[in-house]
Amino acid sequence: MxxxxxxxLFRLDLESPTARRASGATADDSKVAGQSPFVGPDKGKxxxxxxxxxxPLLSSGEEQSFSPAAEKGDENSQPRRQSSLxxxxxxxxxxxxxxxxxxxxxxxxxxxxxxxxxxIYVSPLHxxxxxxxxxxxxxxxxxxxxxFERSFGAREVDFAKITQExxxxxxxxxxLFRYVTRDMGESSKSALSGNAVIGKRSRQTDxxxxxxxxxxxxxxxxVRRASADIHALLFNILVDDAxxxxxxxxxxxxxxxxxxxxxxxxxxxFLEGQGQFLQSYTETVVERIxxxxxxxxxxxxxxxxxxxxxxxxxxxxxEDGIDVNISNPGLFSYKHFYVLxxxxxxxxxxxxxxxxxxxxxxxxxxxxxxRIISRIxxxxxxxxxxxxxxxxxxxxxxxxAEKRRAKGGSRYDLNxxxxxxxxxxxxxxxxxxSEIDKTSPTAVEYWFRCLDLDxxxxxxxxxxxxxxxxxxxxxxxxxxxDIIMLDDLMCQLSDLVRPEHEGMxxxxxxxxxxxxxxxxxxxxxxxxxxxxxxxxxxxxxxRQLAQLSMRALPKTSFEDVIQMRIEFLASLPNPxxxxxxxxxxxxxxxxxxxxxxxxxxxxxxxxxxxxAA
Length: 613
Description:
The chain is an all-alpha fold and 613 residues long. The protein has 28 helices and two strands.
């Protein structure tokens, strides 16, 4: 019974006009007699006096306060005494039932001595050890033993059968093979390996030596015990650094998996011998993996990010295909790579694999504002791999910066010259993915960094006004005076975003916004053409939803119509996938048109030569 129930009982006892009857019977006596301490002697009949007499909550002094003379009382006090006893009995019964329920619940939650609580976190310093887990490892090793007893040659590709027997995807084979053979000495080499390398697509990395079965058992048992699931297992295998244990993956670690896919996937056989395309495809896939993981701005991917993008599941899905007969291609899509690669080289006129601010101004016929381009080129969205040169830290440079500040130039990053800023191909991948699909978490953070001029994590009215001033001047030139003033725009955006503090928009506020609103917010300050397109696209989408509702409402309930609208919105294609499909079709059309023009020119030249002869 709780302390409140005890105090309430004591207060009721003091207010009661009747005294208590002394009794020598206690709760222990009733237990010996086989009765509950809360049940009277009359075969379970509940009476107030017996309840209080046998209650273990009453002290001995309180029990002696009862007297037979006081219990008889007069006729006027009898109803009052009975109501008081009823109140006490109900309180005692209620408290006893609640304590019984809490005790039974505590017994259910408490684990028994034989029950094993599963381990939540597995550390390499404290590996996981239990019977069931060790039995699963032994079963995996038993399946792989037959492959070690046969001679598969010295090729790395033959080790894929062991990789799949261990429960890993086929294209994790190279990573596992390198992990197993990393510290392998001469005594750990298999006596059955060493045959000649054969095959159409053998690589220099295939010419390795298989480990012995005993060495494989030691290495696999150690890494398996240190891994909580398949994501942690693949993560530990990819780290592959015996000298420096680090809790993150780098781009070089991810290239092991991508190179395995490039070398052994049947859809990518045409890349063999294509040096530049092969290298660019590998870089593109690696960057897309880091982009999808989110918050990998420093090139370090933690286990939580690795588990978030489900690399093991992606490797398993591409075994059936990458682009062929795939409705929604993923990170390894060659079609998406081709769009990224061609988009970059269309802007790179001097073919130095670098873009400057002038090149980026030609992006989609100058759709981006100059001020947002300067922020992109300075590496504010994503830290650029090509760091801009800064002037020397001397008195002359400081005086020059003060002079530019006095003239009213840019208020931020005065010691960074925009002419020295360059964008590499990997930086362009992050830019294009963020510009096309602004609904992804990485894109939201990318553009938030660009708009946050002072880097305090808050978008103020002054910062947004800095970017919107250029948009107003472009409206005057391109929209024939149809201008949306900043005050009207901010009122509408505030109603859409609903920030916690008026006039101060944080990244947390934008992450709560529905995905359809985020592109409208960012495009209003940096991409005027897309901002105008949002109105027409929104009206078209509203018409489609209205037609869907009109067709379904007479026969369908309102709740089912709402569910149909939700499913329709969820079925809309991803902005990046939609853009990549359209661009890829346009590129193929241009390529076919170019070949047709070339064939027609060649045929015309041959006819002229024949006529001249």
